[in-house]
Write a structure and sequence with these properties.
Layout (H helix, E strand, L loop, with lengths): L1 H22 L7 H9 L3 H6 L6 E5 L4 H14 L4 E3 L7 H11 L10 E5 L5 H8 L3 E4 L7 H4 L2 H13 L5 E5 L3 H9 L4 E6 L26 E7 L2 E5 L12 E9 L2 E6 L2 E5 L5 H15 L7 H6 L8 E6 L2 E7 L3 H13 L4 E6 L26 E7 L3 H9 L6 E2 L3 H11 L3 E6 L1 H31 L1
Parallel strand pairs: 1-3, 1-4, 2-3, 4-5, 5-6, 6-9, 13-17, 14-15, 14-17, 15-16
Antiparallel strand pairs: 7-8, 9-10, 10-11, 12-13
Helix pairs in contact: 1-2, 2-5, 4-10, 6-8
């Protein structure tokens, strides 16, 4: 009977998934997962038990989609079959959806590994069903305050979820003192990763801290250096709490040809992005693979070929204009995007869209925690703002004496700057605008490519 219910649940979910794909271009729909769970509540544990090797879970405020995709990419390059919620659908229905859509119509699953990004507040529901061999934690920052609350609330949620999977190994960013606190308060086996030198520029670290106080004795922590936020090298002058010596680290980190190169456990790693936080992402991915004894022989080559454009950081090229799309959903993320703009010394235009849907979070007061002043060092020729909270963004810029103009919508703003901008356009959006903007830019890029193709064809004919 259980097998029949599983097969029925998967059959119905897959049929719904096919219909959604045919009827719309929705990204990351989780409705098939809801249908499967409605028919068979134990579907997640049932399917997770069919994974032949290990299940790896990634959690954290920033970077979890990239790290999760990177772990999957390394495994797939080694010829392993992997299940993944690639688009970042990380609530319960999204995780179930990834499993049921990967299963065959017969109800069986053919997978060596599963890589699952999991929302911190959904972890208590999800982890017991997955029973992951490893949970990787990237960082903890304030994010969607109306939903998550303060960081202590998030840490409590994660710790409660981990209590349900006592055998799971933790892989912790030890440079985040919140996560190191969590590690020391859990009984789980744990390994850490971190960077022993400062690699982030001043624009990444304007002095905004989530906290600076020891969670064990209350004394103010002393930092040897800060990368960004509360990430760095720290110790408590009163008690024994301090940054751990990392089990996995990167050394000799340097910028080469627009990307980072560094040494890591006997490997020469090269990543084709100038965003320093991807050094942390690479370390986390490697630590998770090592923690579950997964193959890492081709890690360096797999990382070199990894595509960082996961829809949240994507480049577009149109005639006479290069466009960089960024997702920024909290003050730390927004600050990192400004730092990347400062690195680019060319003149540029900027469009910012801020919304306050349930997906974004209704509380957008975090904009005041972003040090907007660094835009003055970014050679920004023009700023346009749009979205349901465009006036809030406009006011934030006004307080730093940075002029901006309102736009009716994103498409209008982009088209205006394609015709009269600098040819170097940056777009920063929060969640609800991300996939819509990404889709619109792909359409413009495809239309431009078709126009060029038609012109070449006409020239050949003439």
């Amino acid at each position: 009977m259980v097998s029949l219910r599983r097969r029925l649940a998967i059959l119905c979910a897959k049929m719904v998934g096919v219909m959604i794909q045919k009827m719309s271009r929705r990204q990351g729909s989780t409705f098939p997962g809801y249908i499967a769970r409605l028919i068979y509540p134990d579907i997640l544990a049932d399917l997770a038990g069919m994974v032949r090797e290990k299940i790896i879970v990634t959690m954290g405020t920033n970077g979890k989609t990239t790290v999760n995709n990177m772990v999957c990419h390394v495994l797939e390059q080694q010829g392993r079959k992997v299940i993944i919620n690639r688009t970042g659908a990380n609530m319960l229905n999204g995780v179930i959806c990834a499993f049921v859509m990967a299963a065959g119509w017969s109800g069986r699953l053919d997978a060596d590994y599963a890589c699952m990004e999991v929302d911190e507040f959904a972890a208590e529901q999800i982890l017991p069903g997955l029973k992951p061999a490893c949970v990787l934690l990237t960082n903890i920052f304030r994010d969607q305050m109306d939903r998550y609350g303060e960081i202590d609330t998030v840490m409590f949620k994660i710790r409660t979820a981990l209590e349900g999977v006592p055998e799971t190994k933790l892989v912790i960013n030890g440079d985040d003192f919140f996560l190191n606190t969590l590690r020391l308060r859990c009984d789980h086996p744990a390994v850490t990763y971190g960077i022993n030198e400062k690699i982030f520029e001043d624009a990444s670290n304007p002095g905004v801290r989530e906290s600076t106080f020891c969670r064990f004795c209350g004394e103010k922590l002393v930092f040897s250096f800060v990368q960004y936020g509360q990430i760095g090298s720290y110790h408590c002058p009163r008690c024994s709490f301090r940054r751990p010596v990392p089990d996995h680290t990167a050394e000799n980190i340097r910028l080469e040809d627009g990307g980072y190169a560094y040494d890591m456990e006997g490997m020469q790693i090269r990543i084709h992005t100038d965003a320093p936080y991807h050094v942390y992402n690479t370390l986390g991915a490697y630590g998770a693979l090592k923690a579950v004894d997964a193959p890492v022989e081709g890690f360096a080559e797999a990382v070199r070929t990894f595509d960082y454009e996961n829809g949240r950081e994507e480049n577009f090229r149109l005639p006479n204009t290069k466009i960089q799309l960024y997702l920024a959903k909290n003050p730390i993320g927004f600050q990192q995007k400004i730092a990347l703009m400062v690195k680019d010394r060319k003149a540029k235009d900027l469009i910012v869209e801020i919304n306050d849907t349930a997906q974004d979070g209704k509380d957008i007061s975090w904009l005041w925690d972003v040090d907007i002043r660094y835009l003055e060092d970014a050679n920004v020729a023009s700023v346009m703002v749009t979205g349901s909270r465009s006036l809030d963004m406009e006011l934030r810029l006004k307080y730093e004496d940075i002029p901006c103009r309102p736009a009716q919508d994103m498409q209008e703003a982009v088209k205006e700057l394609l015709n009269g901008g600098t040819g170097n356009l940056y777009i920063i959006v929060n969640y609800s605008a991300l996939y819509r903007t990404n889709h619109m830019l792909h359409q413009l890029q495809d239309a431009s490519a078709n126009d060029r193709s038609d012109k070449r064809e006409k020239e050949v004919r003439s």
